[in-house]
Design a protein that fits this description.
Length: 182
């Protein structure tokens, strides 16, 4: 179990994913049982006063965002992101932002290349989180970007303060700060 932790006053430069939290289970070795039970939990994590910049030289599938993602049927619980300033690389397309076919990691290692391409947000992608709280989240980009700042899927009982965005290049029309799906 990963629980009751505080991450505060961090500076990260030239990173592909400044935050990557997953709750998943998979078979690590050949002598492991075929069915690996879900026994872990991730809960009560706080991230505050963090400054991060993306890595421009990353391959397209790694030009990622902050990720909080759980396996189907399970939830990461009570996550606070407060006073976070993330400058992403950008370069996301409108098609990337409209993706709905994001694969789950059930039975395989949680890695960015297993998401099947760029995620539908340039700042934060969160899926299956109970109690996600976003407070003073500042998102900007180095290059043009048309994806939403945040994509929240199956996130319940949380609070989202307005997400502040500043994007380089042309925004296009109808760009959202936060996109939510049930």
């Amino acid at each position: 179990m990963l629980s009751d932790m505080l991450f505060n006053n961090l500076v990260m430069k030239n990173v592909q994913r400044p935050l990557f939290i997953t709750l998943n289970h998979y078979r690590e070795g050949v002598d492991e049982p075929d069915e690996v039970p879900q026994t872990s939990r991730v809960k009560n994590l706080q991230f505050s006063n963090i400054r991060a910049t993306g890595r421009p030289a990353s391959p397209k599938y790694l030009r990622s965002c902050m990720i909080i993602d759980s396996a189907p049927g399970h939830y990461i619980e009570n996550i606070l992101l407060s006073d976070i300033h993330y400058t992403a690389v950008g370069r996301g397309t409108r098609e990337d932002g409209e993706r709905e076919d994001i694969p789950d990691h059930t039975g395989k290692r949680a890695e960015c290349y297993n998401y099947g391409g760029p995620l539908p947000a340039h700042g934060l992608y969160a899926r299956r989180v109970h109690g996600l709280r976003l407070n003073n989240l500042y998102l900007d980009t180095m290059e043009a970007e048309t994806r939403p700042g945040c994509f929240l899927e199956d996130c319940t009982e949380g609070q989202v303060s307005p997400v502040n965005r500043k994007l380089s290049g042309s925004l296009g029309s109808g760009v959202e700060s936060v996109r939510r799906t049930p």
